[in-house]
Amino acid sequence: MKTSLAIAVAQFNPVVGDLSGNVAQIRAAMDAAAAEGARLLLTPELSICGYPPEDLLLRPDFYDRCREAVETLALQTDELAVVVGYPEADGDIRYNAAAVLHRGRIVAHYRKQRLPNYEVFDELRYFDEGDAACIFEIDGVRCGLLICADLWGAAPTKGLIEAGADVILVINASPCHLNKQQDRYRVAADRARESGLPVLYANMVGGQDELVFDGASFAMQADGSIAWQAPAFAAHASVVRLNGSAWVPATVTPLPELEEEAYTALVVGVRDYLGKNGFPGAIIGLSGGIDSALTLAVAVDALGADKVRAVMMPSPYTAQMSLDDAAEMARILGVRYDVLPIEPAMKVFAGMLEAQFAGLPEDTTEENLQSRIRGMLLMALSNKTGSIVLTTGNKSEMATGYATLYGDMAGGFAVLKDVYKTLVYRLSVWRNARSAIIPENIITRPPSAELKPDQVDQDSLPPYAVLDAIIEAYMERDESPREIVAQGYDEAVVRRTVGMLKRNEYKRRQSPVGIRLTRRAFGKDWRFPITARYQDPY
Ligand SMILES: Nc1ncnc2c1ncn2[C@@H]1O[C@H](COP(=O)(O)OP(=O)(O)OC[C@H]2O[C@@H]([n+]3cccc(C(=O)O)c3)[C@H](O)[C@@H]2O)[C@@H](O)[C@H]1O
Ligand SMILES: Nc1ncnc2c1ncn2[C@@H]1O[C@H](COP(=O)(O)OP(=O)(O)OP(=O)(O)O)[C@@H](O)[C@H]1O
Ligand SMILES: NC(=O)CC[C@H](N)C(=O)O
């Protein structure tokens, strides 16, 4: 007979491969959960080793170390049962597994049945599928256990119904993209209604290379309504109570609106990339344009002003307005600000190349030299100080190749890599509404690379609203140019945009890793051939 059960959820931020650090976080969560009277603690998918461990999962020793960590942790359990996720090797066969640790032993064990191999997930590269449901009983409640993608199809839940589960517990490593939580609610509600069971969804939080996990764990009643909602993008621990077959209603933290979600994901991505990789700070080339302004805003919100420095590197083409706006923004934020004019280096390079270029007209070569001089200066500062250079290129630029190799692409982490230019504006306006840190002029002036007199982006690129819509259709929805033109876009503009997108794959392969924000980002989930002659249908 079902009774009441208090279950703690540890929405924590693991570090991939830091087994002792992750176990220490689980231990701390165990102490807090026990103090609050919980009888069961859920930790996220692969909580022992972090997610995704990628090719560490090809190493036999990795499995040995993870098993040792689980067994050691099991010995430290008492009245509180703890669910942990870990990679399991059974001879040559490997599983994405979970163990229930209780009173010094592993009392139940589960192998993930649906392995995601889409978007950014590669689990079929590493794991075999499990084939059995897992039910364990705590205080008379029959708990059914699933791992993340198991919830996204009906079969694993069906197995739990047949095995007589009273509640569905799902441990997750589900990275965010914009509006992802609505998809999670939808699949959880499908499973809840099919089974007539309440669902508890425990997710991890934090940045891991290009991925950001948003947490946002929740409890859902059998009718699909939300009984408890944890905050997004923050480590969090809560105890939720199951009374009979329903959750006792608890705090429902409102979820962020789209701009807040995007901006916070960038902040968490930057903070964890630098923090987990041990960088003392960040360096940003601040041009007086909107991309570097937003990048600086994110960096300061992530790291604090004392960890960020901005460098203005004017050329003879730099407008006074750019100098003024960059200095003003650095002053408002209180970051270290240096001005390093690049004209001396431009002259030296022009002199060194004079004989080579004799009789040839000026073109983008001279523009790229300016960008590369700036890249070289920023990298020199990085080498000398140990701080990382944050690049500022946005998704529209990455898509079209509107960036210079070894120039403005030089750096360690690409903050806006998956942020369309149109979203760059929206995020800047949203951030300024919280406190005005980006000078208004930076937002309202026409974007310009300032690599030659009176240059504006729109001389070389279609309007960003059109460009972004075409990129999104081609890239994120896999639409053909014919379909895009049928939606009313000018065929010549579609041809040009798609042409740039395909031609510039080589640049993206050389770009720094950057934060994924959309369902399909340039990164793990975009593997287009560089050498290709496929003709799209028009
Ligand atoms: N398939 C391929 N595989 C490998 N390499 C390939 C290649 N195709 C060309 N290349 C090589 O790539 C090089 C050309 O690329 P690259 O040197 O980058 O130069 P490129 O793409 O020609 O020019 C850079 C563009 O970015 C714009 N820009 C620059 C800086 C900042 C901004 C901004 O507003 O943010 C915009 C600039 O106005 C210009 O339109 C050449 O050396 C070429 O041989
Ligand atoms: N004068 C400058 N001083 C410092 N950094 C610069 C300068 N010009 C360009 N950069 C760096 O190179 C990046 C590419 O910027 P560029 O001005 O060419 O085009 P952009 O894409 O419009 O970027 P932004 O909106 O930041 O100006 C900038 O974001 C900045 O990091
Ligand atoms: N780790 C997983 O199994 C993730 C798969 C799932 N579709 C998600 O993103 O939530």
UniProtKB/TrEMBL annotation:
User: Pathway, according to UniProt?
Assistant: Cofactor biosynthesis; NAD(+) biosynthesis; NAD(+) from deamido-NAD(+) (L-Gln route): step 1/1
Class of enzymatic activity (EC top level):
ligase
Binding, L-glutamine: 118, 174, 180
Q: Where does deamido-NAD(+) bind?
A: 368, 397, 507
- Keywords of this entry: ATP-binding, Ligase, NAD, Nucleotide-binding
Q: Active site annotated at which positions?
A: 45 (proton acceptor), 112 (for glutaminase activity), 148 (nucleophile)
Catalysis performed (reactions): deamido-NAD(+) + L-glutamine + ATP + H2O = L-glutamate + AMP + diphosphate + NAD(+) + H(+)
Query: Which InterPro entries would you find in this protein's record?
Result: C-N_Hydrolase, C-N_Hydrolase_sf, Gln-dep_NAD_synthase, NAD/GMP_synthase, NAD_synthase, Rossmann-like_a/b/a_fold
**Can you name this protein?**
Glutamine-dependent NAD(+) synthetase
Q: Name one GO biological process term.
A: NAD+ biosynthetic process
Family per record: Belongs to the NAD synthetase family. In the C-terminal section; belongs to the NAD synthetase family.
Which GO cellular component terms are attached? cytoplasm
Source organism: Denitromonas halophila
